[in-house]
Amino acid sequence: MTDQPAETTPMRVAIYGSCVARDTVDLAGGSHLSVADYVARQSLISAGQDASSRFPEDPQVSSRFQRRMMEADFAGDLEQRLEKIAPTVDLMLWDLTDERHGVHVFDDGSVVTRSIDVTAVPEVLEVVNEARHVAFGSDEHFALWAPRAEAFRDRLRELGLFEKTIVLQVPWALVTVDGRETPLSMGTSAMEANEAYRRYFDHLRELGFEILELQPLGVLADPEHRWGLAPFHYTQDVYEEIVARVLAMRDLPPA
Q1: Is the CB of residue 44 less than 8 Å from the CB of residue 77?
Q2: Are 185 and 232 in contact (CB under 8 A)?
Q3: Which of 195, 187, 184 is nearest to 229 (CA)?
Q4: 148: which DSSP letter?
């Protein structure tokens, strides 16, 4: 009788970020990774900042997912959700993609993320446009974000999640798989975005976060990606490399 390989229990993954981490789990995680919770469209600056009273009563949103993410961002519920799932989570993947449009700061100090969903819903966009927009990559944005990153590190330690967290530093792809230059995202090129992100990742390194870094020449955008062409929608091999690196960082056998 031939011995059958033992089945492995997938690691429960908390995802904080955007499609980079989520697509990694969905498209390459296989039997190794499963999603425990997914917090998207929420800047670290807006986390813990309750602006839920400002959310429109009945915005015309076609996607339930988009509405849930916007409501969660207005509520700034990141830490509450992590508290709930922390005891059962094996790994947290954090990518900074959703920081890319900056935040809106209201006069009372509450903050809302300028996400792609917000800009697509007129009723919500009207609300956030009443607040001051702080652009990603600006000195003011970094000055707001950096101390929040330090406080977040300390909270993750309290929750027992810091040692389980891997930050994905995956650069925006400069070109597509067929050699074309990748399109702008909300007016920003891949080269500009990669330069703007640099000091954010450097700061996380200084804070002691574990970083999984891929090099720009090693990533390509996929025009046939399920979410369409964008500098942060990669070819399948990119997601497979991320999973392989994650497993290696956790001393687990390859997929």
Answers
A1: no
A2: yes
A3: 184
A4: H
